[in-house]
Amino acid sequence: MHPRASVLVLSLVMLGGLGSDRLLAQSQDRRAKVLNDRKAFENSQDWIYNDLAKGIRVARETHTPLMVVFRCIPCEACQEFDDDVARRDPIIRDLLDQFVCVRIVQANTLDLTHFQFDFDLSFAVFFLDDELTIYGRFGTRSDRPEEQDLSLEGLRRAMAEALRMHRNASAVKPSLSGKQVKRSRFPTPRDYLELSGRYQAELDYAGSVARSCIHCHQIRDAERRLIRSSGERFSDEVLYPYPDPGVVGLKMNPKEMAQIERVAAGSSADRDGFRPGDEIVALNGQPLLSIADIQWVLHNAPATAKLPARVRRDGTLIDLTMTLHDGWRRGNLSWRPTSWQLRQMGLGGMRLDELKDEDRRQAKLPSDRMALVIAHVGEYGEHAVAKRAGLQRGDIIVSFDGIDRRMTESQILDYTLRQKHRGDRVAVTVLRDGMRKTVSYALP
Fold first, then answer.
1. Which residue from 9, 121, 242, 256 puts its CA 20 to 30 A from 24's CA?
2. The pTM is what?
3. C-alpha span between 366 and 379 (Å, rounded)
4. What is the mean pLDDT of each run of 10 residues along the chain (444 residues)?
5. 421/425 Cα distance (integer angstroms)
6. What are the sequence ranges of the domains in the chain?
């Protein structure tokens, strides 16, 4: 559905430079993974495989809640965690028996009017009733190691809370309105012009099955390309979807539902009075089952806001306010699979890393000035714009479009995608072999 690694399969253009033998081996490996997954679960007594309609029918017949797992099979991210869930790890096995469990491994027919989540994920879970009322979401991903975002213990707690909600549905439902999906531009991914006609509803299991699958990151890519082609500027909501709680200074405990593990000193959350050990029971009126539920609230929050938060501290419920200041969303974009398309649009296909402090000192570059090393240049098509302009891997960018203050790759992407249009030229000054060189290119 949406892995960073799957980009290699879907488009040689995006990463470029891979040998044909290596690309073929990767493609074959991904095909084997998809086929093996189907073989393992298609006739499973525990999972309904790629058939949501059947899952809904069973849920209605048995008056049982649904647990719908969306998983990108070829993606290595979250693979171990997904294996534990799919194979019914003892930590969650007894609770799995209380759900109708549905496993969806492609986004070709994803109903965007019922399922909206962070499309940069490779593993996402929905807990719902048989009318598809959402009790909660589970699954998050960041630039941190996987175990700092996901745990079976945290999943178990989310599952248990979803079951409690289901048993008390009539009392709980009034609080769930904010959890439901928002208006979608299109009903399915295949309705986007960029994806229309390229994919069938069913996967091609007899052929290039991995390539016949719409990966979830392609949904976000298609949405952004539509905005770009229309001449619109990118908003914070489009560039920074499903913000990690870290943007307000919170590091959450992955083994709990929505418990704070750390609060960054001096952050807005710190000033708002949040403390380590606090359990956020509800945010903006929505009950929370997981970190993903926090991200859903943040994703749908306005540019500035004061969100009411109900917090359990030392067994006592207290009310706090989460303050969202102007620009609060703007975190790190670089870890996201969809950042490859943003790099094509805003950087001509380059991937940039911050120069290490020791290398910065050797190059005699001040700590407050730009010093971004080109870690990758695309080889083909629009991803090779920077390469054709003469930029090379290993070059150190010291000025971008006349800006030489210290910036991250995410900040430069933000600048170009907001301030520049297609066809605008940008000048890039690099340090190469001790010499400065300036080149320019037009944004594709």
1. 121
2. 0.90
3. 32
4. 34 38 56 89 93 97 97 86 95 98 94 95 96 97 90 98 97 96 94 92 89 91 92 91 97 98 98 98 98 98 97 98 97 94 95 96 94 96 95 98 97 95 94 95 92
5. 9
6. 6-133+180-190, 245-324, 339-442
